[in-house]
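Reply to dn_fold:

You asked what the input looked like. This is it:
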Amino acid sequence: MFLAIVDPGVGGERPAVFVEADGRWYVGPGNGLFELVQRRADTARRWDIAWRPERLSASFHGRDLFAPVAAMLAKGEMPPGRLSADGADRRLHWPDDLGEVVYVDHYCNTGLRAATLPGDDARGR
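and this is what came back:
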């Protein structure tokens, strides 16, 4: 079970989704976050989340919407949702890897996979 809430567009038009890919569940915003998961899976299905809590804040969907749906799935319950076949939130034009350092944190994490970079410098020293 993966609960992901990287969601700069919280409260906007993006759908709330859960995805089953190769037997694993993913819950979060339909903003392209699960594109590579769906692309690399042998089998993947995606649902738009139909369930809503009594109170849904404009900015805390991780707490109010996604976490309860992830809990339902963790308990073996299927949350109310509509199976999506249209791929409306897919980002098929996105590359598998983007070889560009956008940010380096204080641990020197970059998000780049060493195997995709040329030369020995990519492997570390």
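The beta strands are 2-3, 16-21, 24-29, 44-49, 81-84.
Hope that clears it up.
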